[in-house]
Amino acid sequence: MNIRLTVDGRVIEATLNGSAAARDFAALLPLTLDPDDFQQTERIADLPKRLSTADAPPAADPNAGDLAFYAPWGNLALFYRDGHRSPGLVILGRLDRGADTTHLARADQVRIDTV
């Protein structure tokens, strides 16, 4: 599924994978989030409900541009730098090729819509 992130007025295209968590996330859209920085690697924001982790691997190695759900906290993570392997992290999708992740590092507001 294709989605669009509007990050402080800049549009970034992304694609969700076919996981149960990604389908649950898509069902929440549209969303407007006010993310906080976490470990100078990702922007995080609480979601209105927890996503399914059925069939999800026990951990993930996030890369810059990944969109993920961190199950232990129930939040969305938007990675602008490569992260560390994290138990409970479920990759939902990623920014489309060529997308600039530097805007995520400073994002005060992110609107996420289906395309």
Automatic annotation (TrEMBL):
- Its domain of life reads Bacteria
The record's annotation in InterPro entries points to: Cyclophilin-like, Cyclophilin-like_dom_sf
Boundaries of each Cyclophilin-like domain copy? 5-106
Pfam families, A to Z: Cyclophil_like2
Identify this protein by name: Cyclophilin-like fold protein
Organism, as annotated: Streptomyces lanatus
